[in-house]
Amino acid sequence: MIALMKKNLRLWGYGKAAALFIGCLLFSLGERVNGVSCYQQHILSAVSDHYYLTYFMLPMVLLSAFSFLDDDGEPVILRFESYHRYFLQKWFGTGLVALSLTVLQTAAILLSGIGLPSGNHWELAAGTIERELFSVLQQSFNTPAQTFIACTFYQLIGCWMIFGICTWINHFAGRRWSVGIIVALYLMSAVWIKVSAVQSLPVTGFNHLLILHHNLPHRLAVTGITAALIAALMALTVRFTWRRQLPHLQVRGRGIVAYYLRQLMTRRNLLILFAVVTGMTLSKELTGGFLQSGAEWAYTLFAGHGTGYFQVLPFLELLITTGAPLYLLAVFTEHSVSDQSIFLTVRTGSCKNVMRGILSAGTVFLALYALLWLAAGFLGAGPSGYKMLLYAVLMKFLDMLLQFLVMLAVYLFTRQITMGFLVLLAGNLLCMLQGAFASYLPFGLSSLARISLLESAGGISAVTALCIEGFLAALFLIGMFALGGKKVLN
To answer: What is the pTM of this model?
Structure first.
């Protein structure tokens, strides 16, 4: 274990240590300029500044963790007789790095307060910005000095716990996935102090493990129980399932459709779809606290962009939610058609079978994306919004299917996938046109802002919009089945 400790310290390096000390010293001196006037109050203010802890200390902890996340080679692990013993000792050994981080921070904070008069009490001058924080802390501690020690010790344990969680995630998820997961967990912690809706979520983030007063006065038990459960889960999984990796969707079966589905249903593609749906849903949830019913939630989630005007953010949202799967399908289509060989055509029987495989795989891919939106919508839509949600998801699917078919047709005739994207972009930009006819344009018709569903909403009727999208999607689908195969090998 001592060898693991030395290796972790070597991988951590002196550069991160120097950066932490200098950064903490600068933040602490900034607290001294406009902060409290007593030494004990100053060091407490510095060690509990959640802006410093969230936007500097926590990133430094995570950056330090990435230095030694990867497992050692099999010869090293074999020395410990089993993987779980190796993992537990490696995790225990990261405590030395956590201790180094804490000692450097403490030294910088204590140094920054030199020259201030002693004052181990809670009284503050009127207008001091730490008044609200101190009023919370003094409910649990007697003096600022005692609170400083408690906060420092809590951060030591929190750093060590975060190191273990990151190492555990990296082992089971791999380097590429662990980066995304850890960054996502950090972003949740970063917005926690800014967004009240996130603070109400019943989850424990990295900030709760590192910042003591984020758990006060009533959340400390929840964080402690959560940390204990995570530690138990880590111990059990590295003991009994340490060889397993994160599951991924495997498309089984034979034939051209299954072959193309395996190319589409990759971890990367599914992660992109999930990220788009999750990000947009959270954005709507955080900005839609005024919504009174499930129908309003569904309408807001799928509002999109109306006609006769142009607003940047709604239009960008429409492009992202619709364009993300279409971009993935464009990459898949170009690869499938441009790399087409006569041998694959012979094995599948005809070019029509190749086209059938591309169309079937693309349709299933879009249907899966629509189901993700349906699942996300159910989180906020009550019984009053289910009907509108089902309609909105169906329209979203038909809109994307029609645009996919148009993009595929343009590509087959021009051999330029960029040209297909430009056609889709131009079609969606037509929403700026004035006049009633603009409401009937098929591109972007899944935007509920263009459909008359709520009393306050204008636009064409829901049945008319559904008929337009359904008829055009069916027409293009039949046309591609009948004529598209002839263009595959051109």
So the answer is: 0.57
